[in-house]
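Retry 2 of 3 after timeout on previous attempt. Resubmitting structure tokens to design endpoint.
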């Protein structure tokens, strides 16, 4: 009876052992690698359409340190951040909802020594590995197109992983509150405006003051600020604040997700 009670109660935050879940996802996608690879092409097509089309119609941009860059070099890091967000959100919402509500995958997992925190860390780790693959290929495309202005770009990949961590943790936490597929409309309602207005296609200084304030507190803006600073070399100490924001968001999301999984599945 004591053992059953311990299994029902959500476990406290502790180092997880989600390796088995990562291995399981790897084996699944190994058989459907086309689905895995397809996630790379959407942001690249965006970048090519801008770099070869729109950029020809827009002038150069002057950064805060006086550096002048082309429009494609301005937009590319924002596309990188958006790609990290979209990949993490898709993996941590749609996929996890299906596994939890229909495949009942987590019910069987929690019948083993795995705990809710292990499930959360395993799913988020897989989302980060998948996002890191996409980001690395995207950065390579940027490099080939001449859109990398600084050696600081070596930190663009870790920054992408950090963005993925923030959105994967938050996405998984939100998924545990969703009741049906219709609830995913709210995911799009949040991500599409962030994609369009988080200084993605034009500088945040173009907004009125009150709108600029709203933009600067959104999570995607933190990621765009990191990626743009690293790829252009316009680095400052304020990036630490952006990074801490994303770390806090991801960690809080994972903790909420683990507790919610414990309440939903271990009852």
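Retry 2 succeeded. Sequence:
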């Amino acid at each position: 009876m004591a053992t059953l009670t311990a299994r029902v109660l959500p476990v406290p935050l502790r180092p997880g052992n989600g390796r088995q879940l990562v291995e399981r996802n790897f084996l699944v996608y190994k058989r459907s690698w086309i689905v895995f690879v397809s996630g790379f092409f959407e942001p690249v097509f965006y970048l090519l359409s801008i770099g070869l089309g729109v950029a020809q119609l827009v002038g150069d941009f002057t950064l805060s340190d006086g550096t002048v860059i082309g429009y494609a070099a301005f937009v590319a890091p924002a596309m990188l951040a958006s790609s990290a967000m979209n990949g993490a959100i898709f993996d941590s919402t749609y996929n996890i909802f299906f596994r939890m509500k229909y495949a009942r995958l987590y019910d069987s997992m929690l019948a083993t020594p795995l705990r809710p925190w292990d499930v959360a860390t395993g799913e988020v780790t897989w989302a980060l590995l998948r996002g890191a693959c996409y980001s690395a290929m995207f950065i390579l495309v940027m490099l080939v197109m001449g859109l990398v202005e600084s050696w600081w770009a070596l930190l663009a990949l870790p920054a992408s992983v950090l963005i993925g961590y923030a959105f994967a943790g938050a996405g998984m936490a939100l998924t545990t509150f969703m009741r049906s597929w219709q609830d995913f409309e709210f995911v799009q309602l949040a991500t599409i405006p962030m994609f369009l207005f988080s200084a993605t296609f034009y500088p945040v200084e173009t907004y009125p003051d009150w709108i600029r304030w709203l933009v600067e507190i959104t999570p995607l803006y933190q990621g765009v600020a990191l990626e743009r600073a690293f790829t252009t070399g316009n680095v400052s100490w304020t990036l630490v604040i952006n990074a801490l924001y994303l770390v806090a968001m991801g960690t809080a999301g994972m903790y909420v997700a683990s507790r919610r999984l414990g309440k939903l599945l271990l009852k």
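Attempt log closed. The longest helix spans residues 71-101.
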